[in-house]
C-alpha cells in the first residue's frame, strides 16, 4: 500500500552514522585547512542547470575554532563572499558534531561528521531579483580521498524542494 511505501521511504533516509565505517575519515579541521577550490552547479526542481560557479576557499583553525572564507564567482560574472565561523563541539554526545555561523545564515548551522561523510543543515538568506528569501539547506559532503570531496545540497522552502547544489572540492597539496 502507499502508506507502507511512504513509511519505508522515510525509514531509509540516510543519517551520518550510516557512513561510520567509510574511509578515508573526514576531519573538517584537517580538510578545510589551507587553500581549496570548488566547482559547482545549481539545478532547478526539474534537474536543469541554471547556474554554474567556482569557489576559492581558504580555511584556518585554532584548536576547535575554524574560519572558512568562500569567494564565489558565478558564470554570469557576479561574485559573492561568505565567511563561516566553525566550531567543533566536545563532550559526551558531541562526537563528530560541529556548529557554524555566517552573516547570511539565519541562526546557527548544525553538522555531524561520521566516517567519510558530513551532514550540514542551515537556513540561508538568499537574494533573488531584489528580494531576500530564507531557504533551508540539507547539505551532504563525502570525502573521496585526501584531496577530493563531493557535496550535494538540497535547497527547500516550506518543505518544498527548490533545487540542488552539486560541488566538487579539491584541496591544494
What are its keywords?
173 residues; mainly beta; ten-stranded antiparallel beta barrel; 2 helices; disordered N terminus
Q: What does the model show?
A:
With 173 residues, the protein is mainly beta. 8% of the residues lie in helices and 62% in strands. It is built from two helices and ten strands. It has helices spanning 2-11, 28-31; strands at residues 34-44, 49-62, 65-74, 79-88, 97-101, 105-114, 117-128, 131-143, 148-157, 160-171. A ten-stranded antiparallel barrel has the order 1-2-3-4-5-6-7-8-9-10. A hairpin with a 3-residue loop joins strand 5 and strand 6 (105-114). It starts with a helix and ends with a strand. Residues 2-6 have low confidence and may be disordered.
Strand content: over 45%
| Structural class by helix and strand composition | mainly beta
SS field, number of helical segments: 2
Instruction: Please estimate the helix content.
Output: under 10%
**Secondary-structure element pattern, one letter each:** HHEEEEEEEEEE
Largest sheet features:
10 strands, antiparallel, barrel
Please mark out the parts with pLDDT under 50 across 5 or more consecutive residues, or reply none: 2-6
User: Biggest sheet: strands side by side, in what order?
Assistant: 1-2-3-4-5-6-7-8-9-10
Counted beta strands: 10
- Global Rg: 17 Å
Give the helix/strand layout.
Blueprint (H helix, E strand, L loop, with lengths): L1 H10 L16 H4 L2 E11 L4 E14 L2 E10 L4 E10 L8 E5 L3 E10 L2 E12 L2 E13 L4 E10 L2 E12 L2
Amino acid at each position: 500500500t502507499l502508506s507502507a511505501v511512504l513509511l519505508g521511504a522515510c525509514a531509509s533516509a540516510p543519517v551520518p552514522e550510516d557512513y561510520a565505517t567509510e574511509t578515508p575519515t573526514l576531519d573538517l579541521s584537517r580538510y578545510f585547512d589551507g587553500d581549496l577550490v570548488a566547482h559547482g552547479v545549481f539545478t532547478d526542481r526539474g534537474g536543469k542547470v541554471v547556474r554554474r560557479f567556482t569557489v576559492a576557499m581558504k580555511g584556518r583553525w585554532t584548536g576547535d575554532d575554524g574560519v572558512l572564507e568562500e569567494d564565489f564567482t558565478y558564470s554570469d560574472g557576479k561574485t559573492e563572499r561568505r565567511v563561516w565561523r566553525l566550531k567543533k563541539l566536545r563532550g559526551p554526545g558531541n562526537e563528530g558534531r560541529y556548529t557554524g555561523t555566517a552573516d547570511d545564515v539565519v541562526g546557527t548551522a548544525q553538522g555531524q561528521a561520521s566516517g567519510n561523510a558530513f551532514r550540514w543543515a542551515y537556513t540561508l538568506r538568499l537574494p533573488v531579483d531584489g528580494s531576500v528569501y530564507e531557504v533551508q539547506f540539507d547539505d551532504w559532503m563525502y570525502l573521496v580521498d585526501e584531496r577530493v570531496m563531493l557535496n550535494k545540497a538540497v535547497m527547500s522552502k516550506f518543505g518544498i524542494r527548490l533545487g540542488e547544489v552539486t560541488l566538487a572540492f579539491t584541496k591544494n597539496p
